[in-house]
Structures are given as C-alpha cells and as structure tokens.
Amino acid sequence: MGSVDHVMDDVAKVNTKLKNITDINAVNEVYKKFFNSSLFARTTIGISAIPMDALVQIDAVVSNC
Fold this sequence. Notes:
The protein has one domain: CATH 3.30.1330.40. Helices cover 17% and strands 32% of the residues. It has one helix at residues 24-34, and strands at 11-18, 41-46, 56-62. The chain has a 3-stranded mixed β-sheet with strand order 2-1-3, with no helix packed on it.
C-alpha cells in the first residue's frame, strides 16, 4: 500500500490538460506558487473536452527517491 506522506519536492512529472491552451500563462503562475524547482518533467496539452466540464485536469507522478 502506498504512502501519501509526500512533499511537493517529491513530484517527478506533471501532466496537464487544458480546455483552452491559452490558459497556459495562468497555469504557469500557479505552478510558481507550489513548485520551487522547474527541474521535473512536465507535459501540457490543449484538448477539446475534459470530464465534468472542467477547464484543467492535472495528474502527477511522485517519487520518494
């Protein structure tokens, strides 16, 4: 069973899907508030629809190494 005892520095990769790709600047501003480093891998794409009519969907891969 996995642990949820992680900090933001444990993030290894973030995948972001944006309903409107022009929102990327706003997303980048929020990233700066949560992540001290830009060293982890990151993918951002624009898509036409996200479940529940959301504007953004984010998933992250976390490592404790």
